[in-house]
Design brief:
Elements (H helix, E strand, L loop, with lengths): L2 E3 L1 H7 L5 H5 L9 E5 L11 E5 L9 E4 L2 E4 L1 H9 L4 H11 L14 H8 L8 H8 L9 H11 L13 E7 L2 H7 L3 E8 L4 E6 L1 H4 L2 H16 L3 E6 H5 L1 H14 L11 H9 L17
Parallel strand pairs: 2-3, 8-9
Antiparallel strand pairs: 1-2, 4-5, 6-7, 7-8
Helix pairs in contact: 1-3, 3-4, 3-5, 4-6, 4-7, 5-6
Length: 294
């Protein structure tokens, strides 16, 4: 019989960046512990425990040891929470599971490929269909919760409330040509959201990291250098992101520069877009929520 830490409790143990934003509440404040067992007769719960039953066989390495505790792997946590979260929060969870500082993929808890491969082996498990749908819209390499949300707003299909400007990647590495490295003080940079074919970068300029004149000047210098390398740069501010109409204007301009048109034909868009925007953090300046802080 298998008994292991699971669901929200395992998610907290894996230190997923800004899990409370993903879940919509502070997971640390919950007093209960999620435990999963593989046999019906072992379901008797102790105080402050929630016992889940999983009688269907799991893929190898679905349950792993961590710090001497058996627990659901990150991939299994994603599947388990698929039946608990709405699709937007599930996509955000996946983006955060696959997030890491720019240029440091070893920091990621898991990857899109690992999630897809795991889910392909979980036929019959609760939440699999939703998880498979969500993983289509997940990409590796987000460097912050805000980048994840910007990515979702611009790239998710209209039926999920996004502007449908897909084919973007996160934190794409761009090598700076020799003559510009001294001025910028670095040999490479990472475009927050990048459209490879069109050579167009979307940079999210947060209050936290771009408020000082020095940082703003460096941003402008970097944009100029990238444009000299035939890469167009569009800068999105926190004010634009949080203002619904300003964000829509930005999306329309982005679509135009990509050579596309945003033509929304589904009646689901308005409601789904509203739900998507509820994920934007309130309270602490949202732009301060970055991978570099954890």
């Amino acid at each position: 019989m298998k008994t292991y830490l699971s669901h929200h409790s395992a998610a907290a143990y894996w230190n997923i960046p800004y899990l409370e934003t993903v879940l919509g509440y502070d997971n640390d404040e919950t007093s209960t512990v999620d435990i999963t067992v593989s046999e019906r007769g072992a379901r008797a719960a102790k105080q402050n425990q929630i016992i889940h039953l999983c009688e269907i066989d799991l893929p190898a390495n679905a349950v792993v040891p961590k710090d001497g505790i058996m627990m659901a792997s990150p991939e299994l946590v994603f599947l388990q929470l698929a039946s608990k979260l709405d699709v937007h929060r599930l996509i955000l969870l996946g983006l955060q599971l696959c997030s890491h500082s720019p240029g440091k993929p070893s920091e990621a808890i898991t990857t899109k490929t690992k999630l897809k491969n795991f889910l392909a082996k979980t036929h019959g498990h609760r939440g699999q269909r939703k998880a498979l749908r969500a993983v289509k819209y997940i990409e590796n390499s987000s460097a912050s919760i805000m980048e994840s949300l910007v990515f979702m707003i611009f790239t998710l299909p209209h039926a999920l409330g996004g502007y449908g400007l897909d084919s973007a990647v996160l934190n794409y590495e761009i090598i700076i040509k020799d003559e510009a490295t001294k001025r910028l003080g670095q040999k490479r940079c990472y475009a927050d959201i990048y459209y490879k074919q069109e050579k167009l970068a979307v940079e999210y300029n947060s209050f936290a990291f771009h408020a000082s004149p020095a940082e703003q000047g460096k941003d402008e210098m970097r944009s100029t250098i990238l444009e000299r390398q035939s890469i167009e740069v569009m800068n999105l501010s926190t004010i634009q992101l949080y203002d619904n109409l300003a964000c829509k204007d930005f999306a329309m301009n982005l679509a135009s520069r990509l050579g596309r048109r945003i033509q929304i034909r589904t009646s689901k868009f308005d409601d789904m877009h509203t739900l998507l925007r509820t994920l934007l953090p309130t309270g602490k300046p949202a732009s301060e929520l970055s991978v570099e802080e954890y």
